[in-house]
């Protein structure tokens, strides 16, 4: 055995992969096929929960980020913004030493007085593989394999998108004026009231593997996350929206724990549903998941969900420390209960 062969075999034992069946195909066991859509910290929270209850998990991630390290790489190299994709991969890392070590590595940001300052290692790794392989999906699959990720990460579109929003009162000096605000980072921090969002180009191509994953899923989870800049953008990619409308999967909408300052300041839980319906009026849902402590008016939320064809599931999913973040274990328990109680979609139950 050569030294190189020996090293490769050791790495093969260290990197966890999907369990395979007798004929070499990935074994599904009793697990549902789940696709989670979103971006940023909201999607990461959902993935950290979902990887605890299924090994057949795909993340479909927004590609409109234009701030920080992602924005700099996007502007300089013309690539998809890698930051939200990196966060999703980190969330899918296992809790063992291998997974947690790699999660820390790809999240590590350089601190310097030069051009590297603020860049995340994972962003540079992803972009390097895109340039080497010339294939977004193949490169992300390879990073996932290196990390031992418990699932797959895909971009929602093959081209970088610009998020634009109509905002009332973006300029505090003109509180009633409606202006167009450009860029995800600016939209997320606007002091005004977001009326609607759209993307440029207006008819972006979806990544075929993302469309296929949605159509083949047992469950599709949308949210939580920044409503206008991470959740709704998925509904602005025509092929992806069509897949969400046509899939036989059941659809879960996971609400945020609190309004986001600027973007959804003052929004009630039911208003989140109304905004989503305005952007995708033909999209039906099956379940709306919300933290029971974050819903002051349950009847109004129930009525809003019913108009989308959904029932409401209330569960304690917030972190016990009082921070407005989802607890992975509690969120996993909520998802698992929903998957078990709301119908049999495939042979996994």
Ordered list of secondary-structure elements with their pairings:
Layout: H1 3-14, E1 33-38, H2 40-50, E2 56-61, H3 68-77, H4 83-91, H5 97-107, H6 121-133, H7 136-147, E3 152-155, E4 162-168, E5 178-182, H8 184-188, E6 193-200, H9 208-216, E7 219-222, H10 227-231, H11 238-246, E8 250-254, H12 269-279, E9 287-291, H13 298-307, E10 311-315, H14 328-341
Parallel strand pairs: 1-2, 1-7, 2-3, 7-8, 8-9, 9-10
Antiparallel strand pairs: 4-5, 4-6
Features:
14 helices; 349 residues; 7-stranded parallel sheet; 3-stranded antiparallel sheet; globular; 40% helix; alpha/beta; disordered C terminus; disordered N terminus
Give a structural overview:
The chain is α/β, with parallel strands linked by helices and 349 residues long. The protein has 14 helices and ten strands. It has a seven-stranded parallel beta sheet, sandwiched between helices. Strands 5-4-6 form a three-stranded antiparallel beta sheet. Strand 1, helix 2 and strand 2 form a beta-alpha-beta unit. Helix 2 crosses helix 14, helix 4 packs antiparallel against helix 5 and helix 9 packs parallel to helix 11. It is globular, with a radius of gyration of 20 Å. The termini are far apart. The N terminus and C terminus are likely disordered.
How would you sum up this structure in a few lines?
40% of the residues lie in helices and 16% in strands. The strands form two sheets. The protein has a seven-stranded parallel sheet, sandwiched between helices. The chain has a three-stranded antiparallel sheet with strand order 5-4-6.
């Amino acid at each position: 055995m050569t030294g190189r062969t020996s090293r490769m075999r050791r790495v093969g034992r260290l990197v966890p992969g999907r369990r395979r069946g007798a004929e070499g195909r990935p074994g599904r066991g009793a697990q549902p096929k789940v696709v989670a859509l979103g971006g940023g910290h909201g999607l990461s929270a959902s993935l950290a929960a979902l990887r605890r209850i299924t090994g057949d998990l795909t993340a479909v991630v927004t590609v409109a980020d234009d701030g920080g390290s992602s924005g700099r790489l996007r502007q300089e190299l013309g690539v998809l913004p890698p930051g939200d994709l990196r966060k999703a991969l980190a969330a899918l890392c296992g809790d063992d030493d291998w997974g947690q070590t790699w999660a820390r590595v790809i999240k590590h940001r350089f601190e310097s007085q030069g051009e590297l300052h603020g860049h995340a290692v994972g962003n540079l790794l992803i972009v390097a593989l895109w340039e080497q392989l010339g294939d977004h999906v193949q490169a992300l699959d390879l990073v996932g394999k290196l990390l031992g990720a418990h699932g797959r990460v895909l971009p929602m579109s093959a081209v970088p998108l610009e998020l634009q929003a109509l905002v009332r009162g973006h300029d505090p000096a003109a509180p009633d004026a409606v202006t167009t605000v450009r860029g995800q980072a600016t939209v997320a921090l606007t002091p005004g009231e977001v009326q609607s969002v759209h993307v440029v180009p207006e008819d972006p191509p979806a990544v075929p593997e993302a469309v296929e994953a949605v159509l083949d899923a047992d469950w599709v989870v949308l949210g939580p996350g920044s409503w206008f800049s991470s959740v709704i953008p998925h509904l602005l990619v025509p092929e992806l929206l069509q897949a969400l409308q046509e899939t036989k999967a059941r659809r879960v909408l996971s609400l945020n724990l609190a309004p986001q300052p600027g973007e959804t300041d003052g929004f009630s839980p039911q208003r989140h549903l109304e905004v989503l319906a305005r952007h995708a009026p033909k999209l039906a849902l099956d379940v709306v998941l919300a933290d029971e402590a974050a819903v002051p008016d349950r009847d109004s939320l129930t009525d809003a969900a019913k108009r989308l064809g959904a029932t409401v599931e209330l569960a304690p999913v917030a972190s016990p420390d009082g921070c407005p973040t989802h607890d992975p274990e509690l969120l996993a328990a909520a998802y698992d209960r929903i998957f078990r109680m709301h119908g049999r979609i495939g042979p996994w139950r």
